[in-house]
Amino acid sequence: MSYSIKHLFHIKSSVDDVFDALTDIQKLQKWYTTETSGESKLNGNINFKFGEIDFKIQITEYEKNKKITWECVDTSLEALIGQKYTYELDENADKTRVRYSQSAFEDQDDFYANMNYSIGKYLESLRQFCQSGVSEGFGSDGYRS
What is the pTM of this model? Predict the structure, then answer.
């Protein structure tokens, strides 16, 4: 059996601004991790670094202001290779509704629980960045360890 992490939340910001925060390298550096590089386009690769842990993702779906999917193609955390991270956006009551999913966990174990907690923290950082310009990206001055 395969398990997924799912989150649904709203950001009081335009769909365009939220999509931009998910696709612009400099904005990803603000809310996700300061060590972000690469090309944010269909089939492009983005590299993220969280201390000693690094991820290389490929963008496998890119539908402007609607959906972006990243697939982990290389990382020091082998259990994440092949996982897909999808952000789906739409407007809802003057806000942007974000549906996030992360697929392909074999068990709902401690690793799953830790990844669920961690992404929740970064999704809140995304919300704060889009709403106020303040964020808690890994390595930033506002990061809570």
Answer: 0.94
